[in-house]
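Bumping my old thread because nobody answered last time. Still need a sequence for this structure:
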């Protein structure tokens, strides 16, 4: 399947015949996510396969996932085709993960009115500051130690990229440790980027004649006459970007859970099971690509267990409401990232809470309805039904009820053909009483009329 997707991407964006010298333009807009990383990596691979002269990566990103950023950086470092990262248009930024990608690129350029920096990792869900009021001393020391490790690792990583590309390594470390940021003009002055360019055409003009090292080869860029070919995301990337959105992934998970629960409650419905299964698999695929909190996963599993328990042993909403609370809490802390674009929105959390409450109310209503309905199975369903005496001697005999012949007993003598009503059951013997509505004699009716 991956091979098929690869060929589909290749043929959908391959350079046109006869265009031997091209520059491929990729656009990285929004958070650095698994979907955007897949798009950029396959674009760089296409450039290598088609022997393109240059890859231009136009960026406007607030940052993103560390794993996706490192995947892009590895693809850039392994590329035999030079990659020029370009922060554009004016007003764009290359914050956090974008700064690492910019430093890793062979050419780093920015449009006027753009900025980069603020590359401090916040993988632990906090700011790193502690006023002594949050947790005990050991917890603070453990958290601070983990934060120090993350910051030191990020600083060394970005400094290594800066040294590889002969850029300002001291400012790179400052961007990590102090969350420093720079404008485009300041970045050029501080030797963080190579130059400022208003357009892609000006970028290629300024990059012309520069010597960069791609892999183990020094390449002198010749961008004269290059045709710029824009590479748009294919259907796979667009699908991946949709399902990898935390809000969509969570909604798919919830639909899948409810679909399977309804299928188990009403076997044979088929549609809830099919839709639920597909949505659940897509949701799990998305969760496998995103940073997930195991505590949140545990809360969601607990919520599912409570919903199932409520459906099979109704507690008039107690288990269902508890499941709704657990589901909302799990959804709120499910994704372990500080990137705003990769968090669950409040609207989705409210929707999940409402859906959990609605599920609980449906179960409660079904439970009350079942209690009000007459018993239709088991021994109790015989109570109150009508029958007719088949043969009788004294106070015992046989009656026909529900098309079956039963042994019966009565406190009063009966005769063959009398209508009776079942008032109790003792084993295989029914206790009956005469039904006056079905034992009215024609003579009695005639006397009553006269």
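Sorry it took so long. Here it is:
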């Amino acid at each position: 399947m991956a091979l098929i997707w690869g060929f589909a991407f290749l043929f959908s964006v391959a350079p046109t015949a006869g265009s031997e010298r091209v520059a491929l333009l990729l656009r990285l807009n929004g958070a650095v996510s698994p979907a955007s990383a897949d798009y950029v990596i396959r674009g760089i691979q296409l450039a290598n396969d088609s022997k393109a002269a240059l890859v231009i990566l136009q960026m406007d990103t607030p940052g993103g996932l560390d794993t996706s950023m490192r995947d892009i950086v590895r693809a850039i470092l392994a590329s035999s085709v030079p990659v020029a990262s370009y922060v554009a248009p004016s007003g764009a930024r290359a914050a956090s993960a974008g700064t690492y990608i910019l430093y890793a690129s062979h050419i780093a350029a920015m449009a006027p009115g753009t900025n980069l920096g603020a590359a401090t990792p916040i993988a632990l869900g906090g700011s790193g500051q502690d006023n002594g009021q949050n947790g005990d001393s050991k917890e603070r020391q453990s958290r601070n130690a983990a934060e120090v490790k993350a910051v030191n690792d990020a600083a060394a990583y970005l400094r290594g990229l800066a040294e590889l590309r002969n850029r300002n390594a001291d400012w790179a470390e400052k961007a990590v440790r102090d969350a420093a940021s720079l404008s485009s003009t300041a970045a050029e002055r501080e030797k963080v980027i190579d130059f400022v360019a208003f357009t892609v055409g000006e970028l290629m003009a300024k990059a012309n004649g520069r010597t960069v090292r791609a892999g183990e080869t020094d390449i002198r860029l010749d961008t004269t006459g290059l045709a710029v070919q824009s590479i748009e995301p294919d259907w796979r990337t667009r699908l991946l970007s949709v399902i990898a959105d935390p809000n969509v992934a969570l909604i798919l998970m919830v639909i899948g859970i409810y679909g399977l629960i309804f299928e188990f409650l009403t076997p044979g419905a088929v549609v809830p099971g099919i839709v639920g299964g597909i949505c659940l698999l897509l949701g799990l695929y998305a969760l496998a690509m995103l940073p997930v909190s195991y505590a949140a996963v545990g809360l969601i599993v607990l919520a599912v267990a409570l919903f199932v328990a409520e459906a099979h042993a109704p507690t008039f909403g107690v288990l269902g409401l508890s499941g709704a609370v657990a589901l909302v809490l799990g959804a709120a802390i499910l994704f372990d990232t500080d990137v705003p674009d990769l968090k669950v929105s409040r609207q989705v959390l409210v929707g999940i809470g409402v859906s959990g409450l609605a599920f609980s109310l449906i179960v409660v209503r079904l439970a009350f309805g079942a209690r009000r309905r007459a018993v239709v199975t088991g021994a109790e369903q015989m109570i109150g039904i009508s029958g007719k005496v088949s043969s009788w001697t004294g106070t015992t005999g046989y009656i026909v009820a529900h098309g079956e012949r039963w042994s019966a007993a009565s406190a009063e003598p009966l005769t063959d053909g009398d209508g009776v009503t079942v008032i109790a059951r003792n084993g295989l013997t029914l206790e009956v009483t005469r039904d006056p509505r079905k034992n009215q004699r024609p003579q009695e009716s005639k006397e009553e009329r006269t």
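DSSP finds 15 helices and 16 strands in the chain. Let me know if any region looks off to you.
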